[in-house]
């Protein structure tokens, strides 16, 4: 059973999967110097990670039996093409929700304490600057309150915050109303037709002056140009996910004092990788035994 990991990072996750695979299964990382379709010819299982698996990629393997996303989001997989070929598509829900929630909370605090400016002040031996803002008594607006969002809500309430939320299926009016009363906003919804670019000029105009936005979901939920126009009136932004991955480290947006960035490590913990690897290995074993895989989304 040949497994191909297509991601541009998360190599420790590959090691965790390899250690748990049943006998007769092997995993390798896609070689990025070669065309993706060539890399997939002998794949029985595709692990997309952050790579796009379109109809041509679904059709490329001679004997494809499973597309297993080692994460929650699977918007990069052509589900219609997989259904047409009769190949199950599965994800790994809840495995990294605690890790993502902790990352979101870290970014909320880091942006409130103005971490990039604080690091610069430390280097210049300036004491007691910059002046940040407290979370206590503030309102946190959650866009999505699933597994990770609910964990963030519990932690925020423990810090004295008021928490409100909308779902990705809520009306535009409900979404804008939430933004208008939130001091902090954290995104925890999947990327889809309804959420792509939902943070546009109108959304940022609805946000309070000085509000802080955190995105640990998908970069495309936020319209980048609209964000850049809004930044002068916001209190800051925390990003663990981006519009292009890998991103350009020299992009001036990421060098701003009001932008805190992390290298998409929200779900990267030893514990989360262990849970993700166990789900992947279990589903590979099920396919090898002719059983139905778990957590099927298509």
**Contiguous uncertain segments of 5+ residues:** none
Order of strands, widest sheet: 7-6-8-9-10-11
| Largest sheet data | 6 strands, parallel
Class per helix and strand makeup: alpha/beta
Which percent band covers the strand fraction?
5-15%
Q: Whole-number average pLDDT? A: 97
Estimate the helix proportion, in percent: 25-40%
Helix segment count?
11
Shape estimate: elongated
The count of β-strands is 11
**Rg result:** 20 Å
Rounded to the nearest angstrom, the distance between the terminal CA atoms is: 21 Å
The arrangement of helices and strands along the chain is: EHEHEHEHEHHEHEHEHEHEEH
Report on this structure.
There is one protein chain. This protein is α/β, with parallel strands linked by helices. It contains eleven helices and eleven strands. The longest helix has 19 residues. The radius of gyration is 20 Å and the shape is elongated. The model has no long low-confidence stretch (mean pLDDT 97).
